[in-house]
Each structure stands twice: as structure tokens, then as C-alpha cells.
Amino acid sequence: MRKQGLNLSLLAGLLMTVALTGCKDSNTGTDPETDPNADRWITVAGALMGTTPGDGNGGTMVYSVSKEDAKNPNVSISVYDNGFGVKSTRTARLQASEDGKTLFNIAYNGDNGGEFARYKVEGAGKYTQEDVTVNISQYASATPRWVKLFDGDKTGIAVNVTTPTANNASSGPTPSAPFAYFRGTATILALNLQDVLITGYKQYQIPLTAAEELQGHTIFRLDAPVLNKAQNKLIVGTWMQKRNPATGTTESNFTRLGSKAVIVDYPSLENPKVITSTVGFGDNSGYRSHNSFLADDGNIYQATQRDSKGSHILRINQSNEYDNSYVFSLDAALGVKNVYVDCWKYAGNGIAYALYSQDGSDQGYVARLDLNAKTATKVDLPYEDGLDFGQYQGILVSGDEVYIAFTPVGKDGNIYIINRTSGAVTKGAKLVNKAGNHYIGIF
Fold it and tell me: What distance in Å separates the CA atoms of residue 250 and residue 242, rounded to the nearest whole number?
């Protein structure tokens, strides 16, 4: 389970748009001549069952429809019957260009694990692979985690950490030195998405404090990098782990450190530095989607998972340090216990939407967050048993509209469109499901 243990499958979402039309969007009032995203394809992604219903380990299917059809509750979409299967042994983690016409993928695991591919989006289930490719597996493994930076479709960043080992690991009967730390070797790699080439990568160990490492704390996973406002630093989320210093055994119950992120220089990817929050006590690597966002105010906002005090939204200021005066507890804001953020998306003007569970259950809910007021409100939607957002990837924001795929495992559902300003909810197209499968994003 993502909330308690290791799951290396990658899922992803994608964002598709189409050529512009000459009419205004009736809901947003935007003009295609001035807003290139006023009319676009809406791409829906679904995850196939592997061995267990809802595990999503059987692959990823995608299918694109017009915005008009996505909003129409009389339209039915079946990604599993009519969609395109994205190349990946298990589940892909996809990214798309800002105009939605190009889909990027790095295959996860298998014979082609680590292979980057680019597809031309042509509507419905038609995605044509372009004659460009590069394989990053020798640098970042065949199972890299990656995202596209918000830099105008220029760069993808892949990250990986090898299994942590003790500094005194020895094949002989006795340790080679006193124990000091468990560390893995981290890789951060930059990929030019336009020219399709690796522009640089760095590998290094990333130490915590000596006291933290002596207790067995270590960085287990890196994920969800984001570029700061000055575009001179990358902020990378971490998933922390603790091992028994005497035995090397991973401990499931331990006192968590403050939430940590890794800062590296950009574009050199050098000089890794760990920063620590005293507000959050969870991981901030996310799971299969972006987990940190640069907001309009120039700060970066980051969600926590596996937080011993319930999920928080943390703030990293323009000095690239945690702002510990900013306290936004989702438990307190929603009036519930043990909130866990599965996926979230910044929608602009200080507003965000989060998919979450609570009280140790996988049952999913949707909340509207006001990052400035530090308030959260559950969105009024038809919640059903089996609605699990644990592998969810893509919340689409287009103008004032926020699109979410809403289907319990193995059951039909719908697209729902939420107005980010008013909070009004509109029921959209029907999503036809199949046993064991679930829809995991709109892009």
C-alpha cells in the first residue's frame, strides 16, 4: 500500500489540447485567439488491474475527447474499449505538452524500462509515436520517477535513489567500521524534451545530520521536483525511511523527523542541500503526480503524506527555505483526523483542489483549499464505497475549470467540473468502467 510500504509502480496522467476554434468558451468566457487553451482535447486515463482489483498494475489506457463532450453527461467514454495503451510493463507516468498536442512517456520497468518516447496526439485513441527516443536507464534505473517542469515544455527531470546501505557494510564476518549512516546514491537527470537528449545528470549521496543518521534515518525515495520562481533551484520531495542501525531492518513504526526536501542548483543539478520543516512530519514525494507547486505569490506549496499529525500544506519561500510560520493543517481545516493527500493541484489565485482520504481508510474525498486563508472545504459530490484516489495522477485545470475523473474501482462514474472561483460543480461525461479497473486522471 502506498500509505505504509513500498510500491514501485508508476502511474501517470497526461494533458491534451486541440487546434483552436473561433468561438468563445461559454463557461469561462475566454477567447481562443487570446487563450490557446480555451478549447482543447480532454484526455482521460484509466488504470488496468494487474492481479488485484484497483492495483493498477496492468497498464495505462488513454483517450481524448472534446471539451464539449467532456462536459456532456449524455456522452459515454470507455477508455478500456477504445483507448490507446501506453508503453510500459506496469503503469506509465505520463506528461503532456502545455498545448496538449504532444505526450511524453518514460516506460517503467521491463525490457524497455527507462526508455523515453514522444507521441503526437491526434484525438480519440490515436497517438502516433514520433521517431525520437532516448534511454535513461543506465543513469536513473529502469524505474525512474520523473515529471515535466513548468518551464514551457523544455525540460523533464528524472530522479532515483538506490537502496540505502550502511557505511560499514561488509561481506566478511565483522563490520569494516563503526556504523554512521544508511545512504543510497541519488541521481538527478535533466532531459531536453524538444531535442530529446540528456542535458546533464548528477549522482551523489545526500546526507542528513549526523545525529539523524546514527538513529538510522535515510532518504528512501526522491520524487516530484519543481522549479522555483527564480528558476535557479530545483526543490525535490523526499520519502523518508528508518532502519535499525544494528540489523539494517526497515522499521515501520518510528518517530518521524520534520518533513524534508532536497534543494539543488539549477540547471547544474549540483550542491544538494536538505531543508527541514518544523510544521509537517510526513513525506512530500507524493505518489504518482506532482506534489509541489509554484503559486502566484512566488512561494512553493507542498503537500505531505504519511504525516504523523495528518497531512499539511507546507510553504517554501523564495529564499528556498521552509516558512515555518505558515501552518496549514488539513485535519484542523476539515475537522477530521488523519488526512492523507493522494493527489492535489494548484488551480491559481491561491486556490487548490485535493483528493484525500481520512482515518486510515482508502475512501476518497475531494476538498477545495484556500492557501491564503488556510481553509479547506469538502466538495459536495456523490461519494460511493470503493472510491479510491490512491493511484490518481491528473487533475486538469483549464481556465476557471477544474476537471476530475470520479469512479470507484470497477464501477462507472463521471467527469466532474468544478469552477475554481465559485466552487460550483457540474456533472460531465459518463466514464464506463470494467471490473478491477479505475480511472486515474484527466489531463
Answer: 6
My answer on whether omega of the bond before 382 falls inside 30° of 0, hence cis, is no
Q: Which residues of 161-196 are buried (b: 16+ CB within 10 A; e: fewer)?
A: beebebeeeeeeeeeeeebebbbbebbbbbbebeeb
Helix extents (H) in 232-354? 330-334
112-138 pLDDT, tens per residue?
889 998 988 888 999 899 988 899 999
User: SS3 for 334?
Assistant: helix
Residue 81, classed as helix, strand or coil, is helix
> Contact 284/302 with Cβ under 8 angstroms?
yes
Query: If 0-12 CB within 10 Å is exposed, 13-18 middle and 19+ buried, where does residue 268 land?
Result: exposed
DSSP 10-75: ------------SS--TTT---TTT-TTSS-EEEEEEE--SSSTT--TT-EEEEEEEHHHHT-TT-
- Cβ atoms 136, 144 nearer than 8 A: yes
Element (H, E) at 84: strand 84-85
- Written as one letter, the residue type at 83 is G
**What ranges do the domains of the chain cover?**
41-442
| DSSP three-state, residue 322 | strand
Report how far residue 267's alpha carbon sits from residue 33's, in angstroms, rounded to the nearest whole number.
34
pLDDT per position as a tens digit, 327-362: 999 999 999 999 999 999 999 999 999 999 999 999
| Residues 6 or more apart whose Cβ sits within 8 Å of residue 272 | 186, 204, 206, 262, 263, 264
Query: Out of 3.40.50.300, 4.10.520.10, 2.130.10.10, 3.50.50.60, which CATH number does the structure's domain 41-442 have?
Result: 2.130.10.10
Give pLDDT, residue 174.
60
Cα–Cα distance, 97 to 15 (Å, whole number): 7
Do the strands 93-96 and 102-106 form a parallel or antiparallel pair, or are they unpaired? antiparallel
Ramachandran area for residue 176 (φ above 0: left; ψ -120 to 50: alpha; else beta): alpha
The answer to whether residue 258 scores a pLDDT higher than 90 is yes
> ∠ CA 331-224-55 to the nearest 5 degrees?
75
Coil, strand or helix at 294: strand
Which of helix, strand or coil describes residue 138?
helix
Locate cell 550502511: which residue?
166
Q: From CA 271, how far away is CA 285, in angstroms rounded? A: 20
Q: How far apart are CA 78 and CA 302, in angstroms?
A: 33
For 127, 162, 214, 242, 404, the CA distances from 168, given in Å and listed in that order, are 50, 17, 12, 17, 49
